[in-house]
Design goal:
The protein has one helix and two strands; from the N terminus they run ββα. The chain is mainly α. The radius of gyration is 27 Å and the shape is elongated.
Length: 103
């Protein structure tokens, strides 16, 4: 008889035991998981966000304004590349259809 033993972990906040598969992954944590269960992490970050909401929004706006020209330029370049690829593809299809009709 073989037992399927699932490793467990104790949450560092609420001290409850959960299967290790319930924890979110982390590159730095022990067993490559976070120390808190998902429920405690959610509470922790909701509390943090509520306290730092204004500062977070301010930083997001600053980053948006700083990076907007670069993002628009990149988007424009991607659009032009896509249009050129579509144009080349349309030419290939036109040539293909032209020769298929004559044969």
């Amino acid at each position: 008889m073989q037992l399927n033993h699932i490793p467990t972990r104790i949450c560092s906040e609420c001290k409850r035991t959960f299967p290790i598969t319930d924890y979110h992954k982390s590159k730095t944590g022990k067993h490559n998981t976070h120390a808190q269960c998902p429920e405690c992490r959610s509470k922790k970050y909701k509390k943090y966000y509520a306290k730092a909401k204004v500062a977070i929004r301010k930083q997001q706006k600053k980053s948006y304004k700083k990076n907007r020209p670069d993002r628009l330029l990149k988007k424009k370049e991607q659009y032009q590349i896509k249009k050129e690829l579509e144009r080349v593809d349309a030419r290939k299809n036109a040539v293909k259809n032209f020769f298929n009709e004559e044969i």
